[in-house]
């Protein structure tokens, strides 16, 4: 246990540039900051004053209390943090949480995951969407966002990742719908890759077809370009070291994998 007793912590983000700085997001939607590696915390009270907050709702649980589903701290500037709600907004601070933006235009309001690239500029979001696939990419530290969707045939997104040495090479896991994604064995999901942040290609060589267990976790390795680890909701792990051209299973197998929270 490390502070925040009684709080429902939904997301964590560690800051590589200043390892003692940690952010935590909770349900109901609040954000806390620690400057001593989680031993003590203080609430960033300005988060309570974000415009439009009263409209945030999440449909997955009753009551429909929203929460901070994802946090991403810049690896080069610990004062820059992006927070994504389940559901309602993606917001940003550049002063360590003293002030926050309103919803960032172009990002996905139903946020499921956020990933800050090691270059400190690229940020990726996977989210739930209906009309267009739930992927958003920023190249300016989350100030502005684009929605590159060419080649995607599934709209409900979740996990995102990117090659540590090629920020334009990103990965995205998606399913046709929320009902499919969260089903038990009928996700009909796919993992996609883009090499130019515009056109996506489905990666299926060596993966089960159809991919009926949702990939809730995608992890790259900082010292291994081309490596990607995918964790599925049935507990299986799949890995590739050639950017998804071929895949293989790996041990161990877990009971289930529903999200990824890793700090190194």
Describe the model.
This protein has 264 residues and is an all-beta fold. Helix content is 2%, strand content 37%. The protein has one helix and 18 strands. Strands 1-2-3-4 form a four-stranded antiparallel sheet, with no helix packed on it. β9 and β10 form a beta hairpin. The protein is globular, with a radius of gyration of 17 Å. The two termini are 18 Å apart. The mean pLDDT is 93.
Task: Break the fold down into its secondary structure elements and pairings.
Elements: E1 8-14, E2 22-27, E3 31-34, E4 42-43, E5 67-73, E6 81-86, E7 90-93, E8 110-116, E9 123-128, E10 135-138, E11 156-162, E12 170-175, H1 178-181, E13 190-194, E14 200-203, E15 215-221, E16 224-232, E17 237-240, E18 248-250
Antiparallel strand pairs: 1-2, 2-3, 3-4, 5-6, 6-7, 8-9, 9-10, 11-12, 12-13, 13-14, 15-16, 16-17, 17-18
Structure keywords:
four-stranded antiparallel sheet; 18 strands; mainly beta; 264 residues
Q: Please, how many helices?
A: 1
The H/E string reads EEEEEEEEEEEEHEEEEEE
- What radius of gyration results from the CA coordinates? 17 Å
Low-confidence segments? none
Helix content: under 10%
Q: Give a count of the beta strands, DSSP E runs of length 2 or more.
A: 18
Largest sheet: 4 strands, antiparallel
Shape from CA axes? Answer: globular
DSSP strand content = 35-45%
Taking the alpha carbons of the first and last residues, their distance comes to: 18 Å
Mean pLDDT: 93
Strand numbers in spatial order across the main sheet: 1-2-3-4
Structural class designation: mainly beta
